[in-house]
Specification:
heterotrimer, A mainly alpha, B mainly alpha, C mainly alpha, A: mainly alpha, C: mainly alpha, 4 helices, elongated
Chain lengths: 101, 164, 113
């Protein structure tokens, strides 16, 4: 069973590599943030699997929980930041309506 | 009553997460749950008119909806898998933006509907403006599915039964 | 033995869906369609993998193991609940930034150039 968990961990790690391509190339900054978010979700699962391999799940499951929380808050914070600070911001339909009012 | 239920909820979560039942850790849990209840209990439910009994009824009706939702998530993942692995230049991908009106009144109901639309195959909610949802759909077949309001009726049956 | 089999089946199915999400993030043409792959490809796969691990954890039953399995299930519920929310926040940020929606016609124009 251990070898299966090691296989699963390596598979998840291997799946992170193509997403690293999106982080390096990804045309705009927000594409990169999305890719980081996807990798964060995978890392959460990977942490639990690492715990299984080392027979210390009760410890690693707390790390995984913390990481999931941080990942969620991080992506929300990035989204908020984009709302406020982006210099190239074009006005969307709803905002134009508000300005006319 | 409201604060007591929040306190019990938080303390239950503490018990699950700590896994230690000796006097020291239980006391710590009691203190921290009481503190968090004191400073932030106002944020949990903005609308408190429903009462505890009605909330419990909603929780009992929720699992059937969640099971149906899980099935929808499975379908949407198979859909993404098929699209991603289809050869050629992704012929089926034909994105479009759609506006949909909803009849749901409460914020929580709208949130639930937005999340459910995001998790069903091929559609993502971008924005909620009043009672209109802006939806991004990935292909023509899935845009047709948004017009169908079965999901909205399911949510209304759970959270807004007294209104309808 | 049965527990091991269930665990292996669930985790392998989850890995398959992870592949779908990863390939989608690479191949899809614009920001919005990539969000489809990123937001949805993760929910079911995380659910399957973590439920598989929780089942394995419950294989030799004790109070400690049950608590760990409970925590794993809590992570699952949290991710399935947070993923659509963060998808929504990010895609809205993208819209406000002025990301263009990709259509078939863009593709044709690109190939004509």
């Amino acid at each position: 069973m251990d070898s299966f968990f090691i296989f699963a961990g390596i598979a998840i790690f291997a799946l992170m590599l193509p997403i690293l391509y999106r982080i390096m190339v990804g045309p705009t900054a927000i594409d990169r943030i999305v890719a980081v978010n996807v990798i964060g979700t995978k890392t959460t699962v990977l942490l639990v699997i690492i715990g299984m391999v080392f027979q210390r799940v009760e410890m690693f499951v707390d790390f995984a929980l913390t990481y999931a929380l941080l990942n969620f808050i991080g992506s929300l914070a990035a989204a908020r930041f984009f709302d406020r600070v982006n210099p190239n911001k074009e006005f969307t339909e709803s905002e134009i309506k508000e300005q006319e009012l | 009553m409201y604060r007591l239920s929040i306190f019990l909820l938080l303390f239950g979560i503490w018990i699950i997460f700590s896994g230690l039942f000796d006097a020291f850790h239980t006391t710590l849990g009691l203190i921290s749950a009481a503190f968090v209840t004191l400073i932030s209990s106002e944020f949990f439910f903005a609308d408190r008119s429903a009462g505890v009994g009605a909330r419990i009824q909603q929780i009992i009706r929720l699992p059937i909806y969640l099971l149906w939702m899980l099935y929808q998530i499975l379908l949407s993942n198979i859909h993404i898998l098929k699209l991603a692995l289809s050869p050629g230049d992704l012929e089926e991908v034909e994105p479009s933006l759609i506006r949909v009106k909803t009849n749901l009144k409460t914020d929580f109901g709208k949130w639930m509907l937005a999340n459910s639309i995001t998790l069903t195959p091929g559609t993502i909610t971008i924005d909620i403006e009043g009672d209109e949802l802006l939806i991004h759909s990935i292909s023509k077949a899935t845009s047709a599915g948004v017009e169908d309001d079965s999901m909205e009726r399911k949510i209304a049956a759970i959270f807004e039964r007294e209104n309808s | 033995m049965i527990v091991d089999t269930i665990c292996i089946v669930l985790v392998s199915l989850g890995l398959l869906f992870f592949v779908g999400g990863a390939v989608g993030v690479i191949r899809f043409p614009d920001f919005y369609t990539r969000m489809h792959a990123a937001g949805k490809g993760d929910t079911m796969s995380v659910f399957l993998v973590l439920v598989g691990l929780a089942v394995y954890q419950l294989g030799d039953f004790s109070l400690g193991n049950a608590l760990v399995a409970g925590k794993i299930l809590f992570i699952t519920v949290f991710i399935m609940w947070a993923s659509p929310t963060s998808t929504h926040a990010l895609i809205r940020a993208g819209l406000e930034e002025g990301q263009k929606v990709w259509t078939r016609d863009d593709k044709k124009e690109e190939s004509e150039k």
